[in-house]
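Need residues for this backbone.
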């Protein structure tokens, strides 16, 4: 059992990589701010944007997780998510990549069109 109990906190390769790059980019931004260097500020901003992009790509490659808790045997940070290819329901990153739309569309019940009754049938005078 982990120090956090049985909670799925989303420790994944995508999450750890994105966090590490985000911290590095923030540090470069901080140094650029102190040094009043436009080049360092720009480099830090690029690294922060790169962190978001790398995290998203790793998530789509199956090294992240969808919203909600995972089963206990899949909670390791080195566990690959096999459902990522189809897209996670309710996941913004998957929707941005165009994944999960077919699954969401098939999950919604499609209404069956009913024939519209004629005016004579509604009044009860038409053919039965």
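Answer:
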């Amino acid at each position: 059992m982990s120090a956090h109990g049985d909670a799925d906190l989303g420790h994944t390769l995508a999450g750890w990589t994105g966090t590490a790059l985000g911290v590095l980019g923030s540090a470069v931004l901080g140094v650029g701010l102190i040094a009043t260097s436009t080049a360092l500020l720009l480099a830090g901003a690029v690294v922060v944007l790169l962190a978001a992009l790398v995290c998203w790509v790793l998530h789509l490659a199956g090294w992240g997780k969808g919203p909600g808790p995972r089963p206990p045997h899949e909670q390791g940070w080195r566990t690959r998510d096999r459902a990522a290819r189809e897209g996670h329901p309710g996941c913004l990153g998957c929707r941005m990549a165009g994944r999960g739309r077919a699954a969401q569309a098939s999950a919604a019940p499609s209404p069956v069109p009913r024939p519209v009754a004629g005016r004579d049938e509604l009044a009860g005078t038409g053919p039965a």
